């Protein structure tokens, strides 16, 4: 029997690996979108400064560029690799799937990123040291390289939602994967919102400028760009919603809209009012208020947006063929990939997963609890916390703390086995594995100290083993 290519499971109590990735990802998105948006603001500002001969505007660009260097670029360059570390252990097969589709896209993205980083240093430190026209060309190159990194990553992120048509499953071609159905809508939404974020940060920088006339001019130039960006982002977001697969729409209506819709509207309203106010009263924008608006946009806008995108994708992590719990959901002839759900149903995780410890490969009365815990971590914990009350859709609360093993088993062998919940993978386990999961979940729901029980049982088993050896 052929073992399946699973990796060890990384488990984070309470928030799950999903939130670990989410938190790092959101910080990264805030930093990176601000920088990409700012690169275009610089290009537009500098073009105007060049045409209308306003060298004093370069003062603002220098200040803002410095601010980006110290905050965005440092934070962005730490969280970027941070995302790689986190996703590689949280979803190794998801990452593997993406690499097998997009390795050259990523390579190209790194080239553009290098240009971007060199660009921002050159831009800041060459102000006044090279002639204005050369500097302007440099700034535009910096902006285009920055946006190229966004464009390439968005192609990959959109494929995570779905390829959008069956072509890719047959060809496996990078082109079919990259220009997936929601690529342009997604790119448009991020492009619009990057302007809003960059302008909001720009106002923060502007609020610290002493020269009031310069401040007025710059703010009046920036605020309309933010407003147009915001409107564009909203339009593209509605277009984006039209490009989603059915499972995402179910998730959106049933679980996400009720929680996040008001926050999204509030962010749009607050940002719009703030930009209008800034345009109207450029002298009266205070740094503390500007920082508060920025935090509001990041926490009430970006965090829900990223979480929504990740939740909507459920049950898949990428391309509608890799489930979040790492199991391959369907055949992908174009890549020579075969579905695994039925093989797991027939032989079970305990036989097919390479990282199950030998002593847990056969279920006994003494290890059932530990096997159940392991299987729940492998099969469910990518999407669910296992601790009652924990924030990541914890299973005990989802089961209303049911303590009846047969009832839990009926859920596992009903909806889960037959894949009737559009947001959950089809998880079809052999009878004894499903029983172990139900046994473990019932113990957790009862409030048993599961870790202590498992430790006790392990001690018992090893004592029995030692005494058997001695005889
Ligand atoms: C791909 C992610 C994913 C995996 C893997 C997953 N679930 Fe779920 N599960 C969800 C989502 C999403 C919901 C519904 C959303 C919500 O309630 O927040 C859900 C809901 C539930 C519910 C509530 C009842 C219902 O049908 O809505 C239970 C119980 C549950 N899951 C148990 C499990 C168990 C047990 C496992 C492992 C054997 C598991 N889930 C694996 C994503 C997943």
TrEMBL record:
Keywords: Heme, Iron, Membrane, Metal-binding, Transmembrane, Transmembrane helix. InterPro entries: Cyt_c-like_dom, Cyt_c-like_dom_sf. It comes from the Bacteria. The keyword Iron-sulfur does not apply. GO terms for molecular function: electron transfer activity; heme binding; metal ion binding. Residues 367-445 form the Cytochrome c domain. The chain crosses the membrane at residues 20-45, 66-87, 107-128, 140-163, 183-206, 218-240, 260-280, 287-304. This is Cytochrome c domain-containing protein.
